[in-house]
């Protein structure tokens, strides 16, 4: 079987989500660097892989995908290794709900409005950070209510929901405000520390200072 190719930058939260899925499945893959923030702009050739010029994009034996959730689900279905999605409909729906919540309500607030604003702006917008923290608190409250008993979000099975949450939270806790807020949610803090110790997390870690 041909080695799959992932296009993107190792600083990206969403590229990391796909990389962690590949690592958890034990798949050998190639990461082709694509820096969407490069001074020269997005390379023209890349739009053949992602028509909107975002990262990541993915290719496997001529089959192309973009959108990290679709890529991660394909990786789980197409390759051998431990399953990363529940078999039962309700478990899978809950997994998808958590992933969707982070995409719609968590990523922008936690990564951009809080972490990036604090880390990268010479004069951060404190009102934007405060709004981001309020949104992040709601996300963490809901996540706490949805988490099942056991080491992972859905209980005893590590799923794509955990792989989706971890890189976003990792960026959030790069700043004191993020660490302080997460510390108020002991169950999610413990989950994050558990994820941070996994080889898939360690091997995809990057001292990134961008998205």
CATH class of the largest domain: Mainly Alpha
Which range best describes the helical content: under 10%, 10-25%, 25-40%, 40-55%, 55-70% or over 70%? 40-55%
Instruction: Using the CA coordinates, give the radius of gyration.
Output: 17 Å
Helix and strand content put the structural class at alpha+beta
Arrangement of strands in the largest sheet = 2-1-3-4
What sequence of helices (H) and strands (E) makes up the elements? EHEEEHHHHHHH
**Biggest sheet statistics:** 4 strands, mixed
Verbal overview:
A hairpin with a 2-residue loop joins strand 3 (57-60) and strand 4 (63-66). This protein has a four-stranded mixed sheet, covered by helices on one side. Helices cover 54% and strands 8% of the residues. It is of the alpha+beta class and 211 residues long. The chain starts with a strand and ends in an 8-residue tail after the last helix. It folds into two domains: 5-78, Glutaredoxin, CATH 3.40.30; 89-202, Glutathione S-transferase Yfyf (Class Pi), Chain A, domain 2 (Up-down Bundle), CATH 1.20.1050.10.
Helices and strands, with pairings:
Blueprint: E1 5-8, H1 13-25, E2 30-33, E3 57-60, E4 63-66, H2 68-78, H3 89-120, H4 126-146, H5 160-172, H6 176-182, H7 186-196, H8 199-203
């Amino acid at each position: 079987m041909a080695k799959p190719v992932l296009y993107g930058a190792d600083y990206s939260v969403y590229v990391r989500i796909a990389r962690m899925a590949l690592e958890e499945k034990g798949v050998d893959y190639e990461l082709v660097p694509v820096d969407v923030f490069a001074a020269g702009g997005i390379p023209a050739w890349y739009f053949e892989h992602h028509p909107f010029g975002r990262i990541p994009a993915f290719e496997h034996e001529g089959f192309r995908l973009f959108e990290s959730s679709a890529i991660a689900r394909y990786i789980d279905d197409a390759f051998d290794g431990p399953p990363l999605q529940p078999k039962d409909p309700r478990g899978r729906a809950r997994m998808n709900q958590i992933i969707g919540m982070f995409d719609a309500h968590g990523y922008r607030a936690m990564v951009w409005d809080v972490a990036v604003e604090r880390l990268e702006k010479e004069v951060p917008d404190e009102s934007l950070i405060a709004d981001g923290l309020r949104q992040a608190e709601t996300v963490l409250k809901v996540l706490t209510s949805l988490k099942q008993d056991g080491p992972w979000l859905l209980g005893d099975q590590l799923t794509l929901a955990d792989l989706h949450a971890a890189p976003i939270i990792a960026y959030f806790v790069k700043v004191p405000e993020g660490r302080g807020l997460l510390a108020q949610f002991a169950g999610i803090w413990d989950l994050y520390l558990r994820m941070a110790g996994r080889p898939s997390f360690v091997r995809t870690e990057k001292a990134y200072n961008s998205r």
